[in-house]
Amino acid sequence: MITFAVDIKILVKKMPLNLPDKLPAIELLKEENIFVIDNSRASQQDIRPLKIVILNLMPIKITTETDLIRLLSNTPLQLEVLFMKLKSHTSKNTPIEHMMTFYEDFENMKNEKYDGMIITGAPVEQMDYQDVTYWDEITEIFDWARTHVTSTLYICWAAQAGLYHYYGVPKYPLDKKMFGVFNHTPENLLNPIFRGFDDVFYVPHSRHTEIRREDILKVPELEILSESDEAGVYLVMGRNGREFFVTGHSEYSPLTLDEEYKRDLAKGLDIQIPCNYYRDNNPDNEPLVRWRGHANLLFANWLNYFVYQETPFNIDDIK
């Protein structure tokens, strides 16, 4: 249990997220009245921040940074957010100046320990794992996280890859893309990750592959926490909360599925309208956003119950 001798009123008032100076997400989120601070201001606060590292594998990195920071900001905890990149892969869709300014190679971070880690999805899900050019490096990071991070959140492809690497859980191709917003149910509302959840909640999905319930049930170390009748397994927990595998995209902004749909149409791909997303299922209409409440609770509960309350005060004691 980690405790800080700090007046909770001060924490709630400030709701600080400690981010690298001049990160584009800072100005974008200030426009949404989300309070973030840069390193300069954070250094004046006498609180040990939780160190959260994000391995961002998504092609449009600035968008993903902003989506994740938006959700991480919904807590009175002070967080120091850092960004990790792979040495074996060069991003083609993000300016090299941005990567050099805000991201560090895993090689330069692997001697540090972190309270929490988020590993995003990646546009490689239709490839065999061993055919992914950075498979060796990312599996090294997976193994490193087990001894250097209190709790890790694996999203979409990273969730599938982590389940395969650690537990041998296979993925399967889908006949058509799982694309849209689907309702889900919690398996055990007493699990702290569901604190404040309703009996039914919504999550966006955007993937060509799936993992299956029967394979996960063969692994006693894993617990299925949430499923969807349409989208299948959504949330799986390992090692009593030190690992969470999330197959959907609760972090998506309201327009992300719209942008993906129009991008694929422009490429001439055979893409269906995202299910349960546009009002009246008409792509000429605005999206109906039904997942923000769940998304904020998911990240806040993860940070509170599985990072903040489990990490040692001395970060070097993480094992």
From TrEMBL:
**This protein's pathway:** Amino-acid biosynthesis; L-methionine biosynthesis via de novo pathway; O-acetyl-L-homoserine from L-homoserine: step 1/1
According to its UniProt record, this protein's enzyme class is transferase
Residues at the site labelled Important for substrate specificity: 206
Q: Which residues cross the membrane?
A: none
Quickly give the catalysed reaction: L-homoserine + acetyl-CoA = O-acetyl-L-homoserine + CoA
DNA damage in keyword set: no
Q: Per the UniProt entry, what are the Gene Ontology biological process annotations, in alphabetical order?
A: L-methionine biosynthetic process from homoserine via O-succinyl-L-homoserine and cystathionine
Q: Where in the cell is it found?
A: Cytoplasm
| Catalytic residues in the record | 156 (acyl-thioester intermediate), 249 (proton acceptor), 251
What NCBIfam families does the annotation carry?
Answer: metA
Q: What is this protein called?
A: Homoserine O-acetyltransferase
